[in-house]
Amino acid sequence: MKKLLYSICLFALPLITACSSEMDVVADSLPQGRIGLSFSPAALATRDVASNSVEADISHIDVLFFDSSQSLFHHERVSGVDPFEGSVYLSKSRSDFEANAQYRVYLVANSTHRASTFAQLSNSEEFFLLSQEDERIHMTGLTDSGVEAPRNFLMEGEAYLTNLGAEPQTKSAIVINNGVQSDNTELSCTLRRAAVKVIVTLRKGDQVEFIRNLHAGYYFRNMPYSTLIMPQYEKDALLRTPDKAMSVQFFYWNPDGSEVTVVGYFYSHDRKNDNFFERGTSLIVNVPLKYTYVDSQSGQTVVENYENSYYQLQLSKSGAFERNHIYYVSATINAPGAEELSEPVKISDMRYSEKEWYVQSIDVGGEQGPKYLKVNREQMEMHNVATDNQTLVFASSDPVSVAVRGAYYVDKFGQTQDITSRLNTYHISATPLGELAGNIEVKSDVPTNNTIRYIELRVYQDDNNNGRYDSGELYKDVLVLQYPVIYITNQRGYYSYREDFDCHYQYKGTRIVGVGLEMRNNNWTGNYKYTTDSYVTSGWSGSADDDYFWASKYVSGNGSTAGMSVRSYYHWATNSTAATASQDGVANSNDNARMYHVRVTATSADYVVGRPRLDANGFTDDSADNSKLVSPSFMIASRLGAMFGTYGGLSNVSHGEDGNKNGVDDRIEIFREHCKNYAETYIDDNGEVIHFKDWRLPTESELKIIISLQGTSGVQADAIDYLLNGYYYMTASGPTYNSKGNQNNSKNQSAVRCIRDAY
After folding, report:
1. 249 pLDDT above the threshold of 50
2. Do residues 460 and 329 share a domain?
3. Residues in contact with 424: Cβ distance below 8 Å, sequence separation at least 6, in sequence order
4. Same domain flag for 173 and 217
5. Among 51, 148, 460, 482, whose Cα sits 20 to 30 Å from the Cα of 355?
């Protein structure tokens, strides 16, 4: 048997009914002792007009084994198959079948019945009487929106011994397990569709021109829409006449307007001796046209338009339709049809032909084959759980073991911290729940340090029985990401600025770039500004901290400690030609310039997870209920955005003052406008500078979340640095006390750290 490269799910297991294409399988023969379905690449779809890939599509196959008493011995649904190439394997092995016992093996593809319907069958008689109904079978594979139709076709077949050569007309029972372990069992099965396909071509005669309008369309009259799944018995099909259809997928015109073609599908049917009108299946089609003729009395040429022109066509010469056959019908129209649907003109001068619809061969076997190992994922996630025994699935030709090769997390400075030596401390383990196929159980205590824990697994065949995963056996590596309820990641910032400055670090000498915010006349009148002409020429007078309560900064180098940075103030004058910043002052020579991204996945007694509201001006709403909200995903500005709450004249602006009489406390007004205009950048993996501009004041609960996560000045947390060291920080609803502060600023001197929603 020839096997091809096939992208499939990890073989069909008893309780797995859905999967994704994640692995390539190359097999020269089936794995040892396993029963597999091997799809040959024979064409399944027709190459005729209106063919589409859906005619070959197989979404799932039900495989049924009946023993000598005709009782159901085993049923399994195989999903995620590719009809053109590859192999998939059943959970049953040859050894699971009684030695030398005979079984009938049937395959059913794309049934609309639940898998449990097949599994609950008692015997083959119930199976043969099982039927299926598809009221819109005539539009199977329809891609037009708004109409539900079957996605693929019901198919069926019975397996036979491959060594018989050609498929026998009469099938017989098969021995799956002959008791000889080294022998092979090779079976084949041909899938045939239960449906028929009709293709009707109407050509215009010399006296007509087809007109395309909204009246055009077709009906299948007495369309058979039910069938027995297996063709062992005969049963009259249910008939219906669906509503008019005009989808271009099944009803379309040649570009030159000379032909109209109708394509449809329905189930097999034989009206036998019944009246054709009562039980006969036909096509009623409306083909509007322009009719030109010579009036017999006047001799004048007359042209008439027919907005409706109905015709009725018998679709098979005998009136019977055999499953898995295509019926071709063609006729020439040279006169108008009926103007009323109820009295269509019957076309009698037609040509008929039919042929078998191409079929698909499937090999079913248990031959001995090469070693293989498949795992359904290269990466999996565990969200706030200590055990997962559902996500990871494997199948192997030989018994497997799973080793935990290592574990680590990324700390607040972006440095990888190895915790492999603490696997037992965190109860980290992985165990296969089966010998040759099954799930893999992963266990690990939920992280308590607010970082993502990364666990490296290796699934391997231990052929040498030495318990090692590095001895050259087949293996697959899997990375497990374990998330706590609140987890934090980080990235180093590059430079900061204000959008309303209209200038930033990358302009490099093309304009005046100011860096600072200062108060004018030491009181807030609704007018604070950045830089002055004298600033540009004279540089810093004293220090930036003294003159400005906030100053633009950039990362000018790496700090002396891994993950730390040198933070510097910057500005250029328009006459500058330097390619680098004029480093007017180092803000800190060994500082943390990282932005922290906090994800909160569950509400607590102290806060409610939900995106905080913004008011009409884009500021964080200051209402009491909004103050309880915590964004499920928010970023904290780095120290490139740190605010000096007592510098640049800001210390004289006390909480509660409203100098410009607009009903908003001055300090809140200054800070919320600052956050709205604040911008911070970072460099992505491609070297591109990414700008974050949508910052805002935090809610009270968001600030308290930050405080609770950051540790203290003496006890450092793993996931987030000690960011807020002042006693008071501003929120949208006012100053909030920081119980972990170590700088004695008062409520009237509260500082701020901006945040942004990040999804």
Report:
1. yes
2. no
3. none
4. no
5. 148
* CATH number (domain holding residue 410): 2.60.40.10
Q: Which 8-state DSSP code applies to residue 509? A: T
Per residue in 585-597, pLDDT (tens digit) is 678 889 999 999 9
Contact partners, residue 539, CB within 8 Å, separation at least 6 = 582, 584
Quick one: 240 and 348 in the same domain? yes
Q: What is the DSSP track for 152-219?
A: S--EEEE-EEGGG-SPPSS---EES--S-TT---EEEEEEEESEEEEEEEEEE-TTEEE---TT-EEE
N-terminal to C-terminal alpha carbon distance within the chain: 51
* Structural domains counted in the chain: 3
The amino acid sitting at 431 is T
Q: What is the mean pLDDT of residues 80-102?
A: 75
Kindly state whether residue 694 falls inside one of the protein's structural domains. no
Question: In terms of domains, do 178 and 285 share one?
Answer: no
The answer as to whether 257 is a domain residue is yes
Token code pair at residue 386: 């200590």
How many residues appear in the chain?
A: 759
Confidence of residue 82 (pLDDT cuts 50, 70, 90): low
List C-alpha distances in Å: 758 to 5, 241, 281, 595, 694: 42, 54, 60, 12, 9
Are 15 and 438 a contacting pair, CB within 8 Å?
A: no
| Residue matched to tokens 């039910």 | 226
Give the end of a domain, one of 435, 465, 483.
483
Q: Are residues 171 and 88 in the same domain?
A: yes
Q: What order do you get walking across the sheet with 416-418 strand by strand?
A: 379-383, 475-483, 453-461, 400-410, 416-418
> Residue 649 — left, alpha, or beta (φ > 0 → left; ψ -120 to 50 → alpha)?
left
Amino acid 146 reads G
More confident of the two residues 576 and 604: 604
Specify whether 77 is located in the same domain as 168: yes
Q: How far apart are CA 434 and CA 438, in angstroms?
A: 5
Give the residue-averaged pLDDT of 52-64: 81
| Distance in angstroms (rounded) separating the CA atoms of residues 446 and 383 | 9
pLDDT of 187 reads: 81
Q: 200 with 249, same domain?
A: yes
- CB-based burial of residue 135 (10 Å sphere; 0-12 exposed, 13-18 middle, 19+ buried)? middle
Q: What is the pLDDT of residue 648?
A: 74
Residue 449: give the domain boundaries. Answer: 373-483
